Amino acid sequence: MSLKKKSVLRDWVESIIVAFLLAMVIRAFVIQAFKIPSGSMRMTLLEGDLILVNKFIYGAKVPFTKLQLPAVRGPKRGDVVVFIYPEDRKKDFIKRLVGLPGETVEIKGGSIYINGKPAQEPIFNRIYYYNVGEFGAEGQKITVPKDSYFVLGDNSASSRDSRYWGFVPKENLLGEALIIYWPPLRVRLIK
C-alpha cells in the first residue's frame, strides 16, 4: 500500500473517531434526542414525536461520576422535563413540572393550587387534572420535599405521574424538552 493511501485511510479513521467523540460529548452535556412512547403528554406531545432535550440548562451530569456542571437556570413551574423515573432507573419519563421544593400542591376541582392559590401559568388553565393516586387524592395537600419536584402529565386522565409515585429527586432531572423535530408537520418549540 502506498504512503498516500495510508494517509487517506488514516485521515478517514481520525475523522470518524473525532466525529464520534464530538457526538458523545454533545449527547452527554448539551442536547439529546428522545422518542415519546405514550400519550401521557397529549396534546403537547404525541406518541412517536421525536424531541430534543436541553441537558445543560439544569446542569448536565458528568457520565460515570456524581459530578454536575453548573446550571444555566433552575427548573421552573411549567417546564416540560425529562427525568429518570424514580421507580425504575432504566426508564426516562417526560412530564410537566408543577411543584417546586417546599411548595404545597393540591388538585381541587380539576385545577392546580400552589400554596393555597390557583397556579398562575396559562398552561394549567387549559388542563383538567383528576384526583387519583396516593399523592393526588381529593382534598390532599402535598408538600414537595427539598431538592425534589412534583410533575404531572398534560393528559391527566392517562398519565402515571407524581400523583401515583410521588416526587422526582433533583438528581434525576436530565433536562428540559426543547423542540419537536419529527414528524415534519409537528416541528415546533415545546411549551
Secondary-structure topology with pairs:
Blueprint: H1 3-29, E1 31-35, E2 50-54, E3 80-84, E4 92-99, E5 104-108, E6 111-114, E7 117-118, E8 141-143, E9 148-152, H2 162-165, E10 168-169, E11 173-182, E12 188-189
Antiparallel strand pairs: 1-2, 2-11, 3-4, 3-11, 4-9, 5-6, 5-8, 6-7, 9-10, 11-12
Poorly predicted tracts of residues: none
Shape: elongated
Fraction of residues in H or I helices: 10-25%
Helix-strand sequence: HEEEEEEEEEHEEE
The biggest sheet amounts to:
8 strands, antiparallel
Structure commentary:
The protein is of the alpha+beta class and 191 residues long. It has one domain (3-189): Umud Fragment, subunit A, CATH 2.10.109.10. It contains two helices and twelve strands; from the N terminus they run αβββββββββαβββ. Strands 1, 2, 3, 4, 9, 10, 11 and 12 form an eight-stranded antiparallel β-sheet that branches. β5 and β6 form a beta hairpin. The longest helix has 27 residues, at 3-29. It is elongated and about 75 Å long.
